[in-house]
Design brief:
InterPro entries: Leu-rich_rpt, LRR_dom_sf, LRR_N_plant-typ, RLP29. This protein is 12% helix and 23% strand. The longest helix is centred in the first third of the chain and has 14 residues. The N and C termini lie far apart (86 Å). The structure holds 2-acetamido-2-deoxy-beta-D-glucopyranose (3 copies).
C-alpha cells in the first residue's frame, strides 16, 4: 500500500513543474548578460559571482544563483518551462554594458540594476517590461527615443546618471507609465510638450531645466499626484490652474526662478498636502487661496521676495486641517503676526528674517530674527518699487 502510494506520488511529481528547466533562450541571455560585465567588477561576495551556469538558473544547485533572479513556470506537464520575470542585482559596483541578447527575456517584467557602473545603450526591446530601474549608474548621452518602444513600462527610473540633452518628446504614447524619475541627471532645455498621459509621479529634480510650466503639458495629467521639479532653472508664472490639477498631492518647485504664483480657488475635493516654493524669486503677496486647500498641511515659501501681510486665512480660520509646517522666512512680510499662528502648539516652521512685528524672539517660530529696518526699507523701496538687496538679486 505504502509502496503504491510512493510510486503514485513519484509519477505525479514527474508531471509537476519540478521537472521544468529554464528556457534555453533565457539561459543564453543571462549568460551573455554576465559575460558583458567586467569580471574584475564581480567581487566574490556579490550576487553575480554565484551565477554559475553549470546549474539551471531557475532551478540551481546549492550555492549557485543565490540571488538576482525571479522565474515563473509556463506551460504544464512535459512542456513546462521556466522563464525569467525579474532581474534585480545588488549594488556591488558591476561595470559593463547591457547585452542586446536581453531582448530574448521576453517575459522579463522587472529590471533593476541601481548603484552600479553600467553604461552604453539602454535596452528597448523588452515587450513585457514594466519596471526599469537604472538609477545611479554611468549611462551617458541623450535619453534614447527607443525607450518609447517599451510600451508596457509603468516605472522608469534613470535618475543619477550622466544623461544629458533635452528631455525627448515621445512620452505621449507611453500610456502605461505611472512613475518617471530623471532626477539628478544633466538634462537641460524646456519640459517636454507631452507627458505620459497616466503619470502619477514626476521627478526631474536637480537638472538644468528651463522655461515655464505650461498648461498644455500638465492639464491632461488627471492622475498626477507628485511633482518634484526642485533645483532647476524653471521660471515665469505658475498659473492658477496648476494647483487645481485634480489628483495633485505634493509639489516641490524649490530652488528655481519662478517669479509669480497664482492660485485658483480650490474645491473641497482637492487633495493637495504639501507645497514647497522656497528659494525662488516670487514677488507679490502671499497667496491667500492656498489656505483654502482642505488637506494642505505643509507650505514653504521661504527665501522669496514676498511682501505684504500674512493673510488671516493662514491662521485660525484655515479651512480643513491647519498648517503643520509653515516656512515663510527670508521674505519681506510686514504687519503683525496673527496671534493664532504663534499660539499653535503643533505648528513648526519659521516666520523669521522678514519685516514682521509682534514676533517675540523667544518664540521658536520667530527665529531667525527679523531683518534690520534698513533692509526692509530697501525691499519696499521708493514709492513702493523695491530695490532688492544684493543677496536677493542672485539667489
Ligand atoms: C561552477 O560550479 C561547478 C560545480 O560546482 C564548479 O566545478 C565550477 O568551478 C564553477 N565555475 C565557476 C566559474 O565558478
Ligand atoms: C521594439 O520592440 C520590438 C519588440 O520588443 C523589437 O522587435 C524592436 O527591435 C524594438 N525596437 C527598438 C528600436 O529597440
Ligand atoms: C536649495 O538651495 C538652498 C540654498 O542654496 C540649499 O540649502 C538647499 O539644499 C536647496 N534645496 C534643494 C531642494 O535643492
Amino acid at each position: 500500500m505504502s509502496i503504491l502510494l510512493h510510486l503514485l506520488l513519484l509519477s505525479v511529481g514527474s508531471l509537476a513543474p519540478a521537472g521544468a528547466v529554464t528556457a534555453p533562450s533565457d539561459v543564453a541571455a543571462l549568460a551573455a548578460f554576465k559575460a558583458a560585465i567586467s569580471p574584475a567588477s564581480i567581487t566574490p561576495s556579490s550576487c553575480l559571482a554565484s551565477w554559475n551556469f553549470s546549474s539551471d538558473p531557475c532551478r540551481p544547485g546549492p550555492s549557485h544563483f543565490l540571488c538576482g533572479l525571479t522565474c515563473t513556470t509556463t506551460g504544464g506537464g512535459a512542456t513546462a518551462t521556466d522563464r525569467v520575470t525579474a532581474v534585480a542585482l545588488d549594488p556591488a559596483g558591476y561595470s559593463g554594458t547591457l547585452t542586446p541578447l536581453l531582448s530574448q527575456l521576453s517575459l522579463l517584467e522587472h529590471l533593476e540594476l541601481s548603484d552600479n557602473a553600467f553604461h552604453g545603450p539602454i535596452p528597448a526591446s523588452l515587450p513585457s517590461l514594466q519596471t526599469l530601474i537604472l538609477s545611479s549608474n554611468s549611462f551617458s548621452g541623450p535619453i534614447p527615443s527607443s525607450i518609447s518602444n517599451l510600451s508596457s513600462l509603468e516605472i522608469l527610473d534613470l535618475s543619477r546618471n550622466p544623461l544629458t540633452g533635452p528631455i525627448p518628446q515621445f512620452w505621449g504614447s507611453m500610456s502605461a507609465l505611472r512613475t518617471l524619475d530623471l532626477s539628478f541627471d544633466r538634462l537641460y532645455g524646456n519640459l517636454p510638450q507631452a507627458m505620459p498621459p497616466n503619470l502619477v509621479n514626476l521627478a526631474l529634480r536637480g537638472n538644468s531645466l528651463s522655461g515655464s510650466i505650461k498648461r498644455a503639458t500638465f492639464a491632461p495629467l488627471r492622475a498626477l499626484e507628485v511633482v518634484e521639479l526642485a533645483a532647476n532653472r524653471l521660471e515665469g508664472k505658475l498659473e492658477g490652474w496648476f494647483f487645481l490639477l485634480p489628483s495633485l498631492q505634493q509639489v516641490d518647485l524649490a530652488n528655481n526662478s519662478f517669479s509669480v504664483v497664482e492660485v485658483g480657488s480650490p474645491s473641497q475635493g482637492q487633495r493637495l498636502v504639501a507645497v514647497d516654493l522656497g528659494f525662488n524669486r516670487i514677488e507679490g503677496q502671499l497667496p491667500a487661496a492656498l489656505a483654502g486647500f482642505p488637506a494642505l498641511a505643509a507650505l514653504t515659501l521661504r527665501h522669496n521676495r514676498l511682501r505684504g501681510t500674512i493673510p488671516s486665512e493662514y491662521a485660525g480660520a484655515k479651512e480643513g486641517v491647519p498648517f503643520r509646517r509653515l516656512f515663510l522666512d527670508g521674505n519681506f512680510l510686514t504687519g503683525m503676526v496673527p496671534a493664532a499662528l504663534l499660539g499653535s502648539r503643533e505648528l513648526v516652521g519659521s516666520l523669521g528674517d522678514n519685516c514682521l512685528e509682534g514676533c517675540p524672539s523667544a518664540a521658536a517660530l520667530c527665529s531667525p530674527p527679523q531683518k534690520p529696518k534698513a533692509v526692509c526699507k530697501q525691499g519696499y523701496g521708493v514709492h513702493g518699487r523695491p530695490r532688492w538687496p544684493h543677496s536677493y538679486l542672485d539667489p
